[in-house]
Amino acid sequence: MPLFKSIARFIDELSGAEEDETASYSPDDEKLAAAALAFHVIAVDGIVEDREKDTMRQVLAEQFDLDEKRTEELVEAARQRSLESVDLYAFTSVLNRKLDDEGRGRVVEMLWEMVYADGTVHEFEDNALWRIAELLHVSSRERIRLRKRVERDHGSE
Hints:
By secondary structure, this protein is mostly helical. Helices cover 73% and strands 0% of the residues.
């Protein structure tokens, strides 16, 4: 249970937003689904660094063209949804219904950005991305190509 408490505490710290700000995101919103997956990816290794939190906010804002207020609303809604969910399918099924192949690939690339935010790839993060990509019907070849692209952008090997 301590891991779950630390993840919940991290999510609370990350959001810093009021609960009533989440009303504009329905559970069937692709932005919310992608943001909830981002929470999962940066917390899966049990260590959440400030630069991972910052990267998540920045990537969500850029990916969905959000201002600071809307980004914080999304982060809070994703935090709540993430705490309520028991599996990844709840999020990936929304993305499968709402996005085409290219859109789902962009989500996988966005999640790789989360993974590389702290400069290292933990085996739990790599495994989470593999599972998410499979659920999103993104091929292994495409998942690896996207990973290599993000690695190059981050100067990793």
